[in-house]
């Protein structure tokens, strides 16, 4: 789940109109009775059992007061993790577990037209986007529903409810929704050796808004005792639309106190079909890496 290289200049971005929530307004009785617990379990199991994935993703992510938007194709294998992403402007990213010193190969599709090696968690690849390339696919979505002992409060993950079916992309999808009106920013005093990642895990809020709200940079150490403003959950209103055949997400939309925070739409999803290993090499015939 990634707005590909949003930190690059504007020619790399693809503009799509912001979607409305109207598509969720029309609901119909479910074709097959299912409970909230069953739907969450099947969704989590479908994501966990992925061995390969091909899909197209339309992403909208709020950065400051703007919505950064992108459309990308993705190919992934799991165990070992291999990721290939290409957006409509031709920007390509290839990351392979255990190769290139942990860096991603990036072809910027712009001057100087050479392939770069960039750290997936570094400033350039993390700037102005909510998630890293390593979170491509559905990992972030399963995390929304995950309750752990590390969380200060699991109320958000427990707030999701199956609310019926809707029509999306011309077919039926199950709607899983969270209404969390108690969403707000809270003060948190950082402990010893805390990182942005550990604070994000504690609150289940993701890293981006911690960076943004507190003026922090990627990789910056948090001084012990520093008081941060941190969201107490991932969103105020969250919708996940799920394909009843694959139980994989078709759409995820998160709104917070400012409105739309992020929205991801997944098209042409092909799970667990073999992908030739050649498609995860730099010299593959269709790539410019």
The geometry reads as globular
SS content category: mainly beta
Radius of gyration: 19 Å
Could you report the average pLDDT, rounded to the nearest whole number? Answer: 87
CATH topology of the largest domain: outer membrane lipoprotein receptor (LolB), chain A
| Low-confidence sequence ranges | 1-30
Q: Which sequence of SSEs, written as H and E, runs from N to C?
A: HEEEEEEHHEEEHHEEEE
| Helix percentage range | 10-25%
Report the span from N to C terminus. 22 Å
Do you know the CATH architecture of the largest domain? Answer: Clam
Number of separate domains: 2
Largest sheet entry: 11 strands, antiparallel
- Amount of beta strand: 25-35%
CATH class category of the largest domain: Mainly Beta
**Strand line-up in the sheet with most strands:** 6-5-4-3-2-1-13-12-11-8-7
How many E strands? Answer: 13
Number of helices: 5
Your description of this structure?
This is DUF1571 domain-containing protein. Keywords: Signal. Residues 1-22 form the signal peptide. Pfam families: DUF1571. It is a single chain. With 289 residues, the protein is mainly beta. The chain folds into two domains: 10-183 and 233-280, outer membrane lipoprotein receptor (LolB), chain A (Clam), CATH 2.50.20; 188-230, Membrane-bound Lytic Murein Transglycosylase D, Chain A (Roll). It contains five helices and 13 strands. The strands form two sheets. The chain has an eleven-stranded antiparallel sheet, covered by helices on one side. A two-stranded antiparallel ribbon has the order 9-10. The two termini are 22 Å apart.
